[in-house]
Write the C-alpha cells for this entry.
Amino acid sequence: MSEIEEIERESMPVDALFVGGGPACLAGAIHLMDLIEKHNQGVEDGTIQGDALEEPMIALIEKGSEVGSHAISGAVLDPIALDELIPDWRERDDFPLERWVERESFVFLTETRGFPAPLMPPEFQDHGKPIISIGKFQKWLAEIAEEKGVMIFPGFAGVDLLYDDEGKVAGVRTGDKGVGADGQPKDNFEPGMLLESPVTVIGEGPRGHLARILMNRYGLQDGRNEMAYEMGCKEVLEFPEGTIQDGFVYLTAGFPLGETFGGAFIYSMGGDRACIGLLAVLDAKDPAQDVHYLLQKLKMHPYIRDILGKGKVIKYGAKSVTVGGWGCMPKLYAPGAMIVGDSASFLNAARIKGIHLSMKSGMLAAEAAFEVMKSGDNSEEAMALFKQLIDASWVRTEMEPTKNFHAHMAKYGVVGGAVRFGLDKVFGPGETARTKPDYTHMERLSHVHPANRMPARDDVPYDGHYLVDKLTDVYLSGTKHDEHQPCHLKIDDTEICATRCAEEYGNPCERFCPAQVYNMVPNEDTGRKEMQVDFSNCVHCKTCDIRDPYNIIRWVPPEGGDGPEYGIL
C-alpha cells in the first residue's frame, strides 16, 4: 500500500451531493432547495403531513477553480427550463444577458461564396431568445444556489465513488492535492475528502470520469448505443467600437467540413464582442481532421471575414459535445446515484441545443433526490423514479423524435442523413438505430490520403490577431496545470504510438487535439519519434479519450482547480 493510500481522510456527510457545476447540477440544486422549502412550509402550516427536513445539507463540487471556469457553449438559450426554475429571470437586473436574438440566418458555404437560406429551418429558429455566455450564466446560477443554502466547493474534482455495505453508491472521494509526478505526497499535500451522501447526482459534462465509473460498475450502457460526440472549438473576438452588428445569429453548413457532419455558429455578444465556433463529429473517417485548423479556414472565408474580419481573438476554448441524444442515452440511475446533463446525452443534435435539457434533467433528478430524503430509500427501485419523471416530461417529447438524427448522419452522410431525418419527422423515428463507438469509424491514413502522409497545414497566414495558431489559442484559454503532478492523460501503451499508430493512422492525436497536447518528438538516442504528452496544455475537452483509434487514451481528473479559465465563453 502506498503512502497516500494509508492516509486517513476527513469525512463529511451531506443529504444530497451534486457533482459538477454545470447547468444540470446547478438547476438541480436550486430546485431541490425550493422543494425542501415548500415542503417545510407545508409541514409548518399543516397542509403537508410528515416531518420537516431540518437544516438540509446540499453540496455541489466543481473541478474548476470556480464555477464557470470550465464552461463553454454557444450559447443561445431555450428558456423553457429556466422559466420553470426562475420564472422572473427576465425581470432580474442581474441576469447575465449578452444580447437578445434580433436577426438570424442559416448560410450554406461553398469554398468562396455564402448562400443564405430564404427561411430559417424550424429547428434553428431562435428569434427573441437570449444569447448568453455559459460561464457567466453558471456563475449566476451558483450565486442563486448559494443564497438558498447550497454549499458549493470549487476546485474539488471527484475521482472515485464511495459504496456502502449493500453495494449502493454512498458519495464521492475528491482528489488529493500536492501529489508529485512520482505519485508521492509533496510538502503541500492535502488529502481529498470523503463526501458521504445517500444520493449522488453526477453531471460532469461529456465523457465524465465518475459517470464512466458508475456506468461500468452497474452496466448502465450495456445493450445500448455508445454515446456519440462532436468536438467544437470556439473563439471570442473583440471589435473596435461600433464596427460589429448587434443581436445577430449566423449558422453555417458546408465549407470547410465537406462531407463531414457539423457546422458553425456566429453570435453577437455584449461589449463590442462576437463569438465563432465550429463543431465536427468525432466519428469522422479522416485521421487528419483538425477542428482548430478548420476554424481558422472558416474565418478566412470571404463571407465570414466580411462579418468578423475587424475582430481580434481574445478568448479560446474547446469541448466535446454529446450528440447521440435519446438514441445513445444510458440507463440514468443506479442504487444511490443518477446521471444528468451532457454526462447522460441530454442534447438535441437536430437543434444543436442542450442547456435547457440538461437543466430539466437536473431538476427532475432533484425531485427524485427529494423523495430519497423524505423516505430514506435509495435503492435502485426508488431511484427509477428519475427515469419515470423524464419519460413523463417534455424532455422525452422533444428528444425521442430526434433519437436517430446522429445515426442517420453517420450512416448516410450529410445529404442522405438529412433526407432520412426528414422521413422520421413525417413517419416517426421507428426503432433506435444501432451505432458503433466513434473511434471505430476512423479509417487508415492510406485509405483517405493515398500518399499515406498527413496533408500539409501550411495555408493559413496566422497573424496572432484574427487568425490564431493553436498554441496561441491555448494561451488564450487560460489553461494551467501544476506540471509536477502525475499526468492526467493515461496512455495504455506508448509503443503503439511510435509504431502501429504512426504507420496506420499517422498519429492523428497531433491533429485532433485542439490544444497541442500530443507531440511525436525524436528520441535523442535513437532518433525514433516517440510520444510526448504536454498535459499542461490540456483544455479538458476529452477528444483524445473519444477519438483515439486504438481506444488507449484515458482522461482522468488532474488536481482540482487546474485546467482552463474560460470565463466569458
About this structure: The longest helix spans residues 23-45. The CA atoms of residues 392 and 483 lie 48 Å apart. The mean pLDDT is 96. Residues 14-75+139-225+328-400 form a domain with the FAD/NAD(P)-binding domain fold (CATH 3.50.50.60).
